[in-house]
Amino acid sequence: MNIKSWFGKGNQYRGHGVVKLHSMALEHSTACIMIVEPSRSILYANKAVLNMLKGIEADVRKSVAQFSVANVLNSPLDIFHHNPSQLQNLFSRLFGSHIEEVCLGGQTFQWTLTPLMDSQNLMQAVAVEWHNITESKKPSILNASLLSVVAASSGAIMLADAQRSIVYVNQVLEKTFRALEADLQTALPNFSASQLLGRSLDSFFP
Question: What's the pTM?
């Protein structure tokens, strides 16, 4: 099956003009889209996704040594996935849109996989939209690294958000507060070393 024949399904009575418009819209869309057969062979890739892959071809080769944008068509989508058997299982039970995350050569992508059904509700192909979410992933990676450093610190450290709510207390400070709890309660009657998270920093300034 080719992309034009797929667009033709269900549009037999609308005329070739509509089919052509569908093809043109997909080809010139800024969204990065592939059409993949149920067997996971890549049937079609629009200009946007090909240009995106060209831009990171060297990075992708760090994960997929033989990768070439020129050979994307008819290649299995499996080449981009860390667990092809998992992807195979996903395709076998895909009845609605599904979000999948894949990592390629230091880049992180979110796939939105949408089954394309015929009039008898049989899957004819799967649309795969690619979103590069590498940059949006960095804050969570940074936060995890920051917390590991803070947790290992010998200093007493507390973290609060922009609204001054306490979001983290490391073990050193927690032990200090437990040891001083009775003394602190003379000035702060409602103080509890076990109930710090979620409290406002303002509570330390009566």
Answer: 0.61
Give 22-62 pLDDT, tens digit per residue.
677 788 788 999 999 999 999 999 999 999 999 989 888 87
Query: Token pair 């406002």 is at which residue?
Result: 200
Burial 59-92, CB ≥16 within 10 A → b, else e: ebeebeeebebeebeebbbbbbbeeeeebeebbe
Start-to-end CA distance of the chain, whole Å, equals: 73
Distances (CA, A) of 161 to 105, 148, 153, 165, 201: 33, 18, 20, 6, 10
Helix (H) or strand (E) holding 36: strand 32-36
**pLDDT, tens only, 62-102:** 778 888 999 999 999 999 988 899 999 999 999 999 999 88
Asked whether the beta carbons of 38 and 125 are under 8 A apart, the reply is yes
Task: Give residue 37's Cα distance to chain centre.
Answer: 23
